[in-house]
Structure formats: C-alpha cells, structure tokens
Specification:
Strand order of the largest sheet: 8-7-6-9-10-11-12
Mean pLDDT: 97
Largest sheet: 7 strands, parallel
Number of strands: 12
CATH class of the largest domain: Alpha Beta
Structural class: alpha/beta
Helix content: 25-40%
Number of domains: 2
CATH topology of the largest domain: Rossmann fold
Order of helices and strands: EHEHEHEHEHHEHEHEHEHEHEEH
CATH architecture of the largest domain: 3-Layer(aba) Sandwich
Length: about 325
C-alpha cells in the first residue's frame, strides 16, 4: 500500500514517533501541506493520513487510487464524506482519545479564572509580595466553585468527564444535549440523583455560573453562542470553549466581553486557526486564549498515533474500524 501523510507536524515535533504507522505501508511524510499541494502530494497513493488538510471532492477526482483517508483527529469536517463514499474511499477517525486531556484543560481554564493563578503570579513577579507588609495579600478576588452551577453543552465522552470533575468539586450540573439517554445512563452509572439535570438551552444559560461547550460543530451548533444567547447568561458568568471555534460567533462574543454582558471567556479554539491578525477575540477584554492545546499532552498524542496505526492496519487487513462513512 502506498501511503501519504500530509501534516505530521500537527501531531509530532519529533517528540512522539510515527513509526507504528510508517512501517505498515510505503509511506511518504510531509510536515505540513498547503491546500493547493494536497492533491499533487497524494498523487497515486492508495491512502492518506492527515489532521487539518481538506480532502475535498476535487482531491478525490484528482486522485483515483485514493481509497483510504485516515485522520489524526476525532473531527472529520475537513473531509467531504459524501465525495469519499461515492469514490469508494473509507474514512476513519480516532474517537475518544483526548477525553481526559480536554476535560483537564477545561478545568485548567476554569480554575485559572476563579483562582486568578496567572494574575497573582504576575503580581509576585512584579515585586508586590516582596513589598507587602503582611504574609498574604488578596486584593484580586478569588472564589470557591463548590455549590456553583456549571452548564455543559454536549454530553459525549468529554462532556461526561467534565461532569464527573464538576461533581467532585461539589457543583450542580446542568446538561443540554439531544441525546437524553446519555444523561440517564450517566446518572445510573455514577449513582447520581438531583445534582445532574437535563434542561433546555435557555434555562442552562440563565442559571449557570459556568457554561462550557463540548458539542461537535454541525449546522445546528454553528454560532450557537451569539449575541442573543449571550444575553441570556449571567453577567457574572464564565464561558469556556474547548470544542470547536465555530460554535461561537466571535464578533458577538468580543462585543459581549467588551460591554460586560458576561464576565469572562476562556477558549482553546477559534474559528480560523492559526489565529488571524483580525480575529475579533484578539484584544478583547476579559478573555483567556490558549492555542488549541487541550488535546496535545504527550501521552494523549501517543495514544492518538497508536489508534491511527490500528485503524490503518485494520483497513489493510480488510476489516476497517472507526469508520465514519
């Protein structure tokens, strides 16, 4: 099998190995690939593995041998699934590999905000503690999250893991999801009563001290958070997004932050990545932005590459797994 890897640098900076994949096929590896180079680089290959490169109808048309598309990701909105199916190509993703790392980063953002970790560290670096007369200063207000209400939008593997962490902190959990059975199953598995409640979006936004997004980007969720839904939130609320940038209308969020409609936003994803200079969130007030790193711990990427290799081997053996088409 002839294989092309288009964007290896999105998963490895030579700190995790691609050998488990490379040894399975006659493989050509590119660190990154521009959109106009995708079809040419795939060429006569039987398979391609990528993370963010777009595999469009035009790519399939230009690459008649292409019968396997493997993803370094759970999301597959960069692949034209209908075109792949018509072309007879199998598309395989990597589900659930980053559940714990994304939930962990979600809480890193939450705790950094309520404990003002970054801000207090800067005050110490600036000499405030050296020059203070008492053993402790706390002029930046910090808060316990116990007894707060967290609203979780989307209740897949990551949403459920965030719910578990929230319950451990003593929080009330509201859930907005299309799949109500997941909430019932979660409560039964964890022997949970009234601390987890399924509700409508308006109720969740109005009652939550923290709103955290864990839904896929679809037609239904595109710009779910916008000027109208932001107005439903508490002025003291924190909005967290570790899902997909397109779930938020970025100009509406920037306006809401600048005008004090909500207190703060902490996001790990934006609509156009890497960030453009004119991104509305760049320079907005009361926002914390990390560069799409929730999925990126070393152990998480090692797990990802192991599953990518398993997907490829299963396809070669004639029994594909983790198919999305």
């Amino acid at each position: 099998m002839k294989l092309c890897i288009l964007d290896s640098e999105t998963v490895s900076k030579n700190d995790v190995s691609l050998d488990g994949i490379i040894k399975l096929a006659d493989t050509t590896v590119y660190g990154s690939t521009k959109p106009e180079e995708v079809a040419k680089r795939i060429g006569s290959s039987d398979g391609v593995i990528c993370n963010k490169c777009k595999i469009t109808k035009e790519v399939f048309d230009a690459c008649p041998n292409l019968k396997y598309v493997g993803l370094f990701a759970t999301g597959y909105n960069n692949v034209d699934i209908d075109a792949a199916t018509r072309h007879g190509a199998v598309v395989c993703n990597v589900p659930s590999y980053s559940t714990h790392s994304v939930a962990q980063h979600t809480y890193a953002l939450i705790l950094d905000y309520f404990n003002r970790v970054s801000e207090y560290s800067k005050t110490v670096e600036n000499g405030d503690w050296v020059n203070y007369k008492l053993f402790s200063y706390f002029y930046l207000p910090i808060y316990e999250i116990k007894d707060m209400t967290i609203g979780i939008i989307g209740f897949g593997d990551i949403g459920r893991q965030v719910a578990k962490l929230s319950l451990a902190f003593g929080m009330r959990v509201l859930v907005y999801t299309r799949t109500l059975s997941k909430v019932d199953a979660f409560k039964k598995e964890n022997n949970i009563g009234g601390d987890v409640k399924c509700c409508g979006l308006e109720e969740l936004l109005a009652e939550s001290d923290i709103v955290t997004l864990h839904c896929p980007l679809t037609e239904d969720t595109s710009e779910l958070i916008n000027k109208d839904t932001l107005k439903l939130m508490k002025r003291s609320a924190l909005l967290v997004n570790t899902s997909r940038g397109g779930v938020i209308n970025e100009q509406d969020l920037a306006d809401a932050l600048n005008e004090g409609v909500i207190a703060h936003a902490s996001v790990d994803v934006i609509t156009d990545e890497p960030m453009r200079e004119d991104c509305p969130l760049r320079g907005a007030k009361n926002i914390t932005i990390t560069p799409h790193i929730a999925w990126a711990p070393k152990q998480t990427r090692e797990r990802l590459l192991k599953i990518v290799a398993q997907n490829l081997k299963a396809y070669i053996d004639g029994a594909p797994i983790n198919k999305v088409n």
